[in-house]
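Researcher: Can you fold this with heme C in place?
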Amino acid sequence: MMRKIGTAVALLLLVVGVFFAFAGQGSETMLLPVEGKYGAVDLPHWDHQESLGDCNACHGLFPQEAGAIDRLKTEKALKKKQVMNNCRGCHRSMTKAGKASGPIKCFDCHAAG
Ligand code: HEC
Ligand code: HEC
Ligand code: HEC
């Protein structure tokens, strides 16, 4: 019995440990530069790491590296708004499913509203 409880506690600590090791990587928040009239976009990076639990929800499109989006857009490896459509698409489908998510309207993301 005690042994089972011990195992359960060890497992719980492991899960909690993995969770905290997982979130909180890279910048806590960032301001993604966008040229033109729409303006930069805020991204609460750590909040997303925590709530999504999946780096590849975004990093499937670009590596975990500052400036990666702009570099890949210049190299034409990412289309204009491709990353944006991924952000917005997720917010839209979660909202439709009745879950809390992020902005869908242009100037709820872009600063120059
Ligand atoms: C909601 C989208 C999103 C998720 C989810 C996400 N990231 Fe990021 N991450 C970004 C963006 C955007 C950048 C900046 C890319 C750029 O500057 O072009 C970035 C940059 C980074 C960087 C480079 C340093 C920095 O902060 O600028 C690291 C390291 C990083 N992410 C790690 C992670 C890890 C580890 C996870 C999962 C635990 C994760 N990210 C989940 C969007 C995300
Ligand atoms: C969830 C946040 C979000 C919403 C909502 C959003 N955007 Fe964006 N937008 C971004 C991000 C992030 C980028 C930079 C990455 C990219 O270009 O994919 C961007 C980039 C852009 C660009 C620059 C593309 C380029 O490479 O020249 C334009 C123009 C733009 N958005 C217009 C809009 C318009 C119009 C709307 C409303 C219909 C909108 N955005 C809604 C996040 C958002
Ligand atoms: C796979 C789903 C998903 C993707 C991709 C995603 N988000 Fe979100 N976003 C969420 C969820 C869930 C929340 C609400 C919970 C939270 O804050 O983490 C949210 C919340 C937000 C908020 C509101 C935060 C607040 O404090 O009100 C902003 C701003 C935002 N996202 C911007 C972005 C941008 C910019 C991108 C793309 C670079 C992005 N998101 C990509 C799921 C996503």
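Model: Folded with heme C in place. The helical segments are 2-22, 45-52, 56-59, 68-74, 82-96, 106-109.
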